[in-house]
Amino acid sequence: MLVVHGVWTAGESAPGRLALWAEDPGLPLTTTSRARSRPHPFAVPAAALSTALSGSSDDVRDALVKADESTLNLRLPGTAKGPLPSPETGSEAPSRGLRLTSWEIPVLVIPGDQALNVLGALADPDPESPWTAAASLRYLSLLAGHACDMARRGRMLPQLVTEAGVPAARWRPVLTGADAAAFREFAEAMPPVCRAGGGSDQGAARTVRDVLNALVDAGARAVLPERLLLGARPGPRAALADRWVSALTAEDPTLPGADAADVAALTEPLEAWLRAAHEANGPVRVSFRLVEPPPGEDTWSLVFALQSADDPSLYLPAEELWSGGRLPGLAGRADETLLAGLGRAVRLFPALHEALLDARPHEMTLSTAEAHEFLRQAAPLLQAAGFGVQLPSWAGRKAVGLKLTTRTRSTTPSGKAAADSGFGLEELVDFRIDLIIGDGTVSAEELAELARLKVPLVRVRGQWVELDDRQLKAALRAVDRRREGELTAGEVLQQVVDGGEEDLPLVEVDADGRLGDLLSGEAAARLTPVSTPPGFQGVLRPYQERGLSWLSFLGRLGLGGILADDMGLGKTAQTLSLLLTERENAATRAELSATLLVCPMSLVSNWQKEAARFAPSLRVVVHHGNARKRDDEFKAAVAEADVVITTYGTALRDLHLLRDVQWGRVVCDEAQAIKNSGTRQAQAVRAIPARTRLALTGTPVENHLAELWSIMEFANPGLLGPAKRFRKRFQEPIEVRGDADATAALKRATGPFVLRRLKTDKSIISDLPEKNEMKVWCPLTAEQATLYQAVVEDMMAVIENTEGIQRRGNVISAMTKLKQVCNHPAHLLKDGSRLPGRSGKLARLEELTEEIVTDGDKALVFTQYAEFGAMLQPYLAAHLDRPVLWLHGGLSKAKRDELVERFQRDPEPMVFLLSLKAAGTGLNLTAANHVIHVDRWWNPAVEDQATDRAFRIGQSRNVQVRKFICTGTLEEKIDAMIERKKALASTVVGTGEDWITDLSTTELRELFALDPVAVS
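^ that's the sequence the OP posted. Answer follows.
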């Protein structure tokens, strides 16, 4: 399968263009010359890519006709052997020897005016397509969706620009308010491949602006009418302004032959208009608060104020301003700031001119009709332009919705009491659908009266609600449909997931019985817990028995689920107890098909050992490695097995074999491995047939909601609809606009199938010991400080003279070298020199580990550098005269298992040195009650996963977690950044250090600068 990438190329004066290229991981890595630029060995010819994409849609086929086949030189990461395959191919990147190299790649170049349709069409490749989208193409598709949304919302202004020496009428985005924040987020999240081509070396922010310029212009031409002005189209000799207006919606935006003086005269006011649209984005902004009238009255108030843009709680009402009040941090006169802001706002809300007739305006009164005009039209424009807007809590909500009520029948058709019968999706329930306006139900007669009044803002039972024609029409149609009767439980479930119509959503569900338990999302708590099965060697905790009851309940219904318990809460034990319960309740073992368990390679032995420990009666077969069974031998082994354990990689390679078996259940452990629905391994796992499916993951959503869709698509195929519909209905409203209604609807749709519990919740588990985290501040030695300063000076000189992806690579290289200096001079120099007395970190590590083993304890010591771990292991072993185990990615599975077994079983105090990448997940190392992070990964989620190797069920002692930080170095400064951003660490910081590489040269110099306090 091809992996298709997207690159944006932009010249100095020409419009931007989309370049598509693809790699085939099946191609051989051929030896190439050492020339400065070489052919990319995995890249496919442009003609082959065109053929693969031609089946996508009519838009893509039309664009391919106009596409140019060309060649681009892209700077991409690789090793001395060749370029790295993309992560979508399932290949893992090496940890050493990476560098940026220029590669010649055949591309299809799509003109900017065609790029919008192409990106929209390629956003969701069909699972049967011969290609999948790489991160760069998915990113550009998401950016294209944002550009379309901006065009629909009118977040653009017309401009006159010069392209290749010719004037052109173009639309440009207005990036203020929420759109400015979205712009920054897009710049931070841009995959480097998107700007790896020539002409886009100005950085991520410049590339995002280039893309938006092209795509918003295309979006504007799609949403605007064909003609902005009536009458005959102006000819080539008409006034430039008339020609310009016509070209804003014409297929050809250029204005050849225009007089230079006329161009300058028109360009200047248009540019001033665009600048003025961004002026509200200062440190202090004018704010508007809409106050609803008291009961029995019909007069609204619009209150003016000054407000801090960075801290909205700093708020000064205009009435207090005119009485001498001050806003902290405001430079200049407050009255001038208020009046200037109100003057700019008049363009967006013309009714404000009446308030400006007052010398000291502080508020204005509005009728109900004017208040509705402010809510619908002015408020969004003011907010998007950077003004503060405060609306009543009910504003913006869907005023009209549906309430679904179901009741379990007291007896079944056979006369048996329903409480005594089992619950299934075919069970009939009585249902009723009511109309809700605001917070209360309304009758058909009340609805008809509201529709007759045709008033957009009305009081319903004392509460103001906003009604629009589309909602009222949808509600009136609903009155004519069947509003009560009987449905099966499965039909009710599908209605809840569908969530009603766009204009008439399902906002409330009231169900009783087992169906109510399921729809509430609290089935685990409401169901009678299933007791620990007799064959389970151990005792399940109460919350684990509740988890077992939930899993059993879904299994009996043939539904899949996501067990998203926090790491260490025993997802493995609950899954094994489910398999035992099903087999012990079956009349014969032959009634149940085998379970296929798919997990990362590092967890195969863990599952094998946990099954032998907790469920020895289960017959377990491991399907992995060169000795695994094939064809008829494999089928025979499955027929005799209860559980077949395999890896994600093997599942992809042996898909043809696994698809020929009808599995009772497919379980995905560490299901975040299939969070990207477009990867080959995610598609492979979804293609394996099973009666029911179960996903195990502590992080169902790491970065964006599309990951939840992908995992749910595995657990319950088709339940959330196509990815495109999910993105439009849930992902974009929630991630872009923070839509509370969409959030509630998504929770209602997914809640029945997701069980999420946290270790920190004492109602879940009260006997887990404490985790005490602390930072250990380490000084640099004089030698480290000298080396550190030398690296900063050398690398800053290199960084200042490079741009684009090359600069990004140099920044990462500089950070790596500085972190190596902080570890130990010998780590940077790689000269095999002596270790003692030369590193503040090593000195502190010696003291801590000596104290730990003297007290009879065990410790886990994590480093992200395998080469540093290899240096530490023999040195610490000699220094402590105790065992120092060393686990890294180069060990065989058998050796890894041996080390883990020894550490857990051997009573002797010892230190376990681990590579963060090789041992950060999957291992159970509760014998340790100390965790030390020698060098920071700078991603809290990764560090927490590593810490949880010790802090999990089975741990009986408090866990001490220490994070080493060198004082006065970039380690301290980035730690401070992370603390400020911790709530958003997973999205802002990402999964590595790439977020730092887009800092300016001045910011990097400040970040890398060595503080004098750093030296001991």
